[in-house]
Design goal:
The radius of gyration is 30 Å and the shape is elongated. By secondary structure, it is mainly α. The longest helix has 23 residues. The protein starts with a helix and ends in a 9-residue tail after the last helix. Helix content is 68%, strand content 0%. It has nine helices and no strands. α2 runs parallel beside α4, α7 crosses α9 and α8 crosses α9.
Amino acid sequence: MTTIEFDNQLVKLENNLERFAYSLTNHLEDSRDLVQETFLKALTHRKQFRDNSNLRAWTFTILKHIFINNYRKSAKQNTTMDNTKDLYFLNNTEKCAASKPDAAIHIEELNKKIQSLEDGFRIPFEMYISGYKYKEIAEEMNLNLGTVKSRIFFSRKKLMQALEEYSPGKS
């Protein structure tokens, strides 16, 4: 196949490639970019095309591979890597900013209520919200697993009762 024949057949596939690209991306501009990348790759690697093979299948395969590679690349870019000891940044709960000006007051009030709990309830609860597992708390405090679970449950219940005025729907 000559270069001119190759180019002409490739141009004839444009509408079909655009439809296929749109079915993959569901976005018009992204699908056009995908077709453009496909044309560039097909023209760049024209010598790898075998004359007796199917140009349509060859270009659709190129398009699909470009789409998959772009998807993998974007997924990799959106992945958060935390190489710190104990995954500090992923487990850090202090990164959420207050959305309302009075949120700091509410947090301060919550901390006061937590501190007012009896030690037998407060300590397991604080350990739990710090990221300890039930089993770890039980081992650390030399308690049964069921005791730890019930103390954390009752701590939550006491805090919800003590902070009823802050619940949604209350003004």
